[in-house]
Design goal:
Strands 1-2-3-4-5 form a five-stranded antiparallel sheet, with helices on one face. It has about 110 residues and is of the alpha+beta class. It has helices at about 65-80, 85-105, and strands at about 5-15, 15-25, 25-35, 45-50, 60. The termini are far apart.
Length: about 110
């Protein structure tokens, strides 16, 4: 039986609704947000953002937030199945190193 995927979505900014960052096991893995209304009213966008080369299918759109979250979760599950575990581990190490450098600058 496959391990369940638990994602945590939280608002990117406290005062801006409809814009979420998504974490998996403490790692920032993507974003879900309402698209720019100037282009297409009501379209939600999602994208996986891991510090490594991402496949073409690592982003998409949906007509509502729930569908967007469902599509994001499915894509993340696919990514976990297809990604080389050693490369993903290296991406997490790069993420930690970047966070340390950023913290030192502040």
């Amino acid at each position: 039986m496959a391990k369940p995927i638990t994602l945590k979505a939280s608002l990117k900014w406290p005062d801006v609704k409809d814009d979420y960052v998504v974490h998996y096991e403490g790692h920032l893995i993507g974003r879900i947000r309402l698209g720019d209304p100037r282009y297409e009213q009501g379209t939600w966008e999602w994208n996986l953002t891991v510090p490594m080369a991402m496949p073409d299918w690592a982003s998409g759109t949906a007509e509502n937030r729930d569908a967007c979250m469902k599509d994001f979760t499915a894509a993340w599950g696919r990514f976990l199945q297809e990604a080389d575990p050693a490369r993903l581990q290296r991406a997490w190490e790069l993420e930690r190193a970047a966070a340390i450098r950023h913290h030192r600058r502040d």
